[in-house]
Structure formats: structure tokens, C-alpha cells
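Exercise 7. Predict the joint structure of the components listed below.
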Amino acid sequence: MSQYQGREWHLDCPLTGEDIDQLNVGDLVYLSGPVFTARDGVYKHMLVEGHAPPIDLLALTNVTFQSAPAGVEVSPGKYHVSSLQATAGFRYAQYMPQLLEEFGVKVVVGKAGMSEEVYRDVFQKHGAVCLTTMGYGLGAIYGSAIKDVLGVYWVEELGISEALWILELERLGPLLVEGDVRGNSFFAGANEEINRNLGSLYEGLKPPVYGRLGEEHKPEIELF
Amino acid sequence: MVSASTGISQELLYQVGYEVNKRAAIVVPQDGLTAFGNAWERESKPLAHFILGKILENAKLAVADARPMCGDTGLPRYYVKVGNEARIDGGFVALERSLRRAVADVTQDIQLRANRVHPLTRKNPGNNLGVFAPNIDYSFEPDGDWIDIIAVHKGGLFGTDYRMLFPADGTDGIKRFLLDNMAEFARRGLSCPPVVVGVGLGGTKDQAVSLSKEAACLRLIGNRHPDPDVAVLEEELRELANKTGFGVMGVGGDTTALDVHIEIAYTHTGGMPIAISQFCTAYRRAVARIHADGEVEFREDPLWFTDYYRREGID
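Solution:
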């Protein structure tokens, strides 16, 4: 078994333009410094309904996690995180133009990324990249890299699992570069290779006698 | 703790319900560790090999730090098997209260994510409780005077599907449905492969779905169905799932399914309902038996699918 050849970067948040430009799909990244979390609740509250964030996000960082950590309020106003994993990012593609435009976000850390079109149309224009968490079960590794919870906001409005968390990271990784500033997607490449073989597995298997509405049998496509 | 007249106490049920819930969040069961280790050794793709190594490292760190092994701590749920002679002080209502209290307390103490919300208003009570939450499912066993409490924490978004197939579709239909399920959910690793695939075949439609979940979560990796025809199909489907090449996280690799477990149920003569559930890389389960004398025994094998549970006739 040969070693994985992806380059490894250790970067401080907020990232510089130079940090971001040098990232290529398939690289591994470790992040230190402040980040903010946002998923369904924050996107709706902040972007759709227009509530101003309770702190100046732009001044703090340009890195966001599509996540809410596993963590609780251990004493009034004091929070602790045990474990962290991002959630599937494709469903937030619609929010990316506004998030990148208005909040200066340059690094979106999610799970599994978005389509290459979103990288080309939105990320590339803003010099932004999309990273993905790895293993999709490295919660303890990621959780142990959270050095401090700097604040948790909108708990009343959104609930603890959708709140806006500000986290201080220390070498949180590995994260995989899924979308780079040149508009490439790691998974687009991986899917191309997988799809070369996928169709042949259906050969000789007769189609179902009763179909389903909307059924168009193209197992090689993405469904978002 | 236990008296002959009253049975297993509510407090003991709470303690065991708490402990299995906590262990499920933190400790990857041994069959999972072995399977991930084997996948890591076999893996021919460098990135997939690297990721599988990290998954093993993560499992160790979770135990060392006593922190949840995945940041999405899933939806805590219980499967309870009750020996026919078991007695509970306060009855089943006491059992359910104990398990609900355990979920709320583990959520706070182990710092699970409070994932359970109202489906429309998205209101979050913050303790993983709510209407019909946590799920508690029961089965029974003749003769025993014990209670088995099994905790499972399962991710909730991707990997499950249902379809009504017909007898004419045969195993071709089953294989296509499996391939479709992998293509829909293992791509980009949305369902977090490598997974244990559970197939619920037959029964009523709702039985197919719940059996697929039980098949995924409540049999050890490597376990085969006692019906030889079903066991052969399990092997064939596992091979087929792995031929897709999605691999860990969907990056491309040799192991997409650690195993495939099929549970069959007798079904309507005209149909062949099928459901698939995928139990993700966050392979989380813990099992304990409370004996009538109050002794508690933790073990790896859920022993959920007993001959009695799968019985065909009256007895």
C-alpha cells in the first residue's frame, strides 16, 4: 500500500488569499484559529430573514463550518464541545452567493461538498474554497481540536443544534480540499472513475415490472 | 435492588439504560473495529487507506477521551428484549420512564448533540426527547427472567429507501434496488460508508422498513441468516455493493459495505416489498442483560434475532 500523496497544509484562520490559492483538490488541511458554525437555522435566520449576526463575523474570521457541534451548556453561558462533524453541504448551495458576498467567507467546511457548477459560478468568483470533513466519523479527532468555545448565539431562537457557535480551533484536521479556487471538485473526479464501472453492474438484471413516478434510470448522476 | 415480589427495579433499569446509551455513543463495538481493521489492511487505494486509518485512530481517541466518536450523535434509540418470566418493579411504564430519563441525562453528561426537534416548528427541547422519541422497540423470549437493553445511535438522513417489488422481479429486482441505493446514497459518502447494509425483504411494507433497520443494526458483522438461500443472497449482495467501488467516504475504494444482512418476513402472495437501511461508519451499539437477581452483563452480540423471534408456526 502506497502512502497517500496529497499535500498537507497547516493554516491559521482567517486564511490569506495566498493560503487559499495554493490549495488543490485532494490536499489535506489542518486549521487553527476562530471559525463560526452555520447550518439550516443560521442560514434561514441570518440570510433569508436578515437578522444581523450578534458579533462581527467578518472581523473575526473567513472560515465557516456547516455544522453544529455535539456540546452542551455546562454552566450558565458556558459551553463545552465534545465532538464535531459537518453536515451534507449540497443543500446549502443556494445560500453560498449571499454568504460569500456579504460575510466575506472564503473557506466553507462541510460534508461532501457541492457541485462543480457552484464552485465555478460562486466560489471561484470570490476566491473561496470548499473543504470537507473526512471519514464522516472523525468526531472525536475533530472535537479534541476545539480548544475553546468563544460564544454561542441564537440558542433561544434556533435551538442548540442549529445555533451559531464560535469555536477556537487548534490544528483541526485532516480536512480534504473538495472545491478549489480554480473551480475543480475532488468528488467530480472520484465520481467519474466510479461511474466508468457502475453501469456494467446492472448488465443482465431485468428492470422492475412496475416503475416509479420520476424514475429515470441514470445511476451515474448526482441527485442534487 | 431486586426482590422476588417486585422484580427488577426502576433505578437499575435507569442505570443500565444510561450505561448502554453512553457506551454506544463512545465505544465502537469489537465487530466493527475488526471489520474496519480488515478493510484498512485490504484497501488498495491510498486515500481510502489513509481515511480508514483515521477512522481507527478516531475510535481509539473516543474511548481514551470518553467523547462521542461522531459529532452527529444520531438519534438515540433502544431495542428491548424481555424474557417471558421477567418482572419489572413498576412494570413497563417504569421501564420506559427509566429509558427516557437516561436519554436526557446522557445527552447532558456525555454532551451528545440534542438532535431531536419538532418536524415543522424545529423546536428543540434540548434533551433528545420528544413526541415518540426516543424509539423503544420490544421483542420477547420464552422462559428467560432477564431483560436485554440495546442502545443504538443511528444517523438519520441518508441511506434508507423502500420499494414495492413483485414476484416477477426476483433477485434481479433485489440486486438492482441495492445498486440504486448505493448509487443514491454512497456517492460522495452521503450515507457515510463503509456501511452495514440491512435489507428487509417481504412482510408488510412497514415491517420491511423496520426489519431493514434491525438487520443493519442488530446483527454482528459476519453473521449469516439461518436460511441458506438468504445467506447466499447476503454474500452476493455484499460482493455487489463492494463492486460499486464507492469506498469509504465515496472517494473510491474497495470496501463500501462491511456486510449485508437480510431479514425476511412472510409477505403477500402478490408482492415482494423491500427496504434497505445503511448503518454508517459511526457504528454505534451497546448491549446489556439485566438478570432477575440484579446482575448486569454487558456483551457484544445483541442476540436480537433469535429462533423464537423468527418463528414460523404457532410456537
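Discussion. The CA atoms of residues 150 and 167 of chain A lie 6 Å apart.
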